[in-house]
UniProtKB/TrEMBL annotation, chains A, B:
Keywords from the named record: DNA-binding, Repressor, Transcription, Transcription regulation
SMART domains listed in its UniProt record: HTH_LACI
Positions in coiled-coil regions: none
Keyword set includes Transcription: yes
Gene3D superfamilies in the record: 3.40.50.2300, lambda repressor-like DNA-binding domains
Record-given protein name: LacI family DNA-binding transcriptional regulator
Example GO molecular function: DNA binding
Species for this entry: Microbacterium bandirmense
Amino acid sequence: MAAGAGVGRSTAARTLGGYGYVSPDVRERVLAAAERIGYRANALARSMSTGISNTIGVIVADIANPFFGGVVRGISDAAHARGYDTLVLSTNEKLPEEVAATNVLIDKRVDGIIVASAALDAASAAHFEQARDHGIPVVLVDRAVPGLELDAVVIDNRAAARDAVERLIAAGHRRIGFVWGPPVQERPRLRREMVDIAARNLWTDGERLQGYLDALDDEGIVFDADLVMVGEKVEENARVEVRQMLALTDPPTALFCTETDAMTGSLQALRDAGLRVATDVSMIGFDDSSWARVLEPPLTMIEQPMQALGTRAAEVLFGAIDGQEPSVELHTLETRFIERASVAPPSDR
Amino acid sequence: MAAGAGVGRSTAARTLGGYGYVSPDVRERVLAAAERIGYRANALARSMSTGISNTIGVIVADIANPFFGGVVRGISDAAHARGYDTLVLSTNEKLPEEVAATNVLIDKRVDGIIVASAALDAASAAHFEQARDHGIPVVLVDRAVPGLELDAVVIDNRAAARDAVERLIAAGHRRIGFVWGPPVQERPRLRREMVDIAARNLWTDGERLQGYLDALDDEGIVFDADLVMVGEKVEENARVEVRQMLALTDPPTALFCTETDAMTGSLQALRDAGLRVATDVSMIGFDDSSWARVLEPPLTMIEQPMQALGTRAAEVLFGAIDGQEPSVELHTLETRFIERASVAPPSDR
DNA sequence: CTGTTAGCGCGTTCAG
DNA sequence: CTGAACGCGCTAACAG
């Protein structure tokens, strides 16, 4: 490269790297030569010498999940605007894979990590300490990890769930099903057990379950374990569980669904039972999508600011990369309650 | 690090790097020391000396789009299985951004690139030559680029569209709308113009439009430009355009939607017009989702193997990385036609 | 089996 | 303003 323009290699490096002094004419010559031979500076070598990789790592459960897709989009847009690229790793919600992913990112010397962690408490989050020991800031997104001293960008799942369930109650419902419960085999009968289990599972799920319980408490409605789905968190199981709820002698008149697949599974169960949304069973779900608008009746939903979660997390991360003292706070973004037509007063079937 | 275990640095490197000979006891000692001080090998330095980054680059229009989310998941799973990580870049369907993304990947010395390109022809795909000049294999996914000598992993959009439209025709329809047409301002009146424009736009869109025309030809149905949506490819415009079609004196009795948002937009237009799916207007769309099953009636859809497109593209790429001669072929994956209940004989409103 | 040595391609002094 | 020399942390040959 240097030879191509008839200058020393460091002069070439200076013009291409955009640092130090270079006379205009030499500059032109170098640029022309670079263009001519299709020269591209080796970012790896640059990173080695500067210690900056201009890459951030993102760890999520599943990039194919539209929610994470939105979050990652927000992150990568913000990163791109600052000249950073994004390495995305999926963990299938498995902690060991999350640890491995973190190590990969440490090895590749990313400048920062954003993670929607599957860790339930600080004790199972030692891998983030590792990253920090290597000078790599970490910020959590979508999920906080209780006890972990890390910035986290989240929504208030508990409040959003509570609000939704309270609206159901305000419409007159007292038998409200909770779909996407704790992934346990045995259904906990006691309310206390339920809370314990919620606290020992995925943070978002636990918070939403708590919000549901909060709303019941506020209105003095007694908790019934039969109205909480348990088992594997997949659409088919939601369908099965809701079908069972609907067959109860005192079935739910409303359903609160904490995720898209919980909603579609529930909808299938309604159809299986020959029941209609709103008229027979009221529904509210998390994560709005354009489909929710075209159903008949259109679905009342809680919208999460997916991209904003990502961009905000990136901003916090870049703050740390720029050397700001980590504030270690919970950055809470607003959800939006979108009222449509899937909630009506209970019917007495 | 080396000092920590009391051995030479290359011995340490050998055990950690997993190459060359190391005696078991020394090996243990090194591993222990590494563990103790939380040592992690610098992958950047390794890449510099080996020329292998163990990273592949993926370029798509928008990682938040569930279709690309699925494709990327397939790619990253296959890559992960081979010890590679994935750098994902979104281009917003803009060619200049795609060129910039390619350059970033070249700079970072990725070992291969998979791209859903926005390029319409070989002439606008010089950036891939650049990558190849740097020894980086490129494989296309989701979209072929006519005239470009590159492997491409796609589905047969034209055949799938043709098949779907023929089924509509078989059900008795002769007025069939095409939703998600060419993004032009002025509606082309002539069939020939329409074909020309289709060929000059996004490959998948053009192929699907061709398939639509093929089906009409087969059955001797005369093409009517008024039944093809034009303008910006966003849900709201689909709604507007379909509303106009429905207001025609001889309106469509069936709609073929080439994408999710085209489908939801069309569904909104039907509702605006007080029309029902199947009973009043039959519908078939691309890209199945769990929502399509819970609509009433459930939607007949064409399912694309999103993840398989990704994994297959990765396999082809790794073949090239392993030094196989590029076969330069079109790898075509099967779509699945999912018959549900949104197609019925035409009604005479 | 192990230590030594020479690059990989940059950024960064430091003379000139 | 420009060129030469060194180091980033690792792999790859090569002696020992």
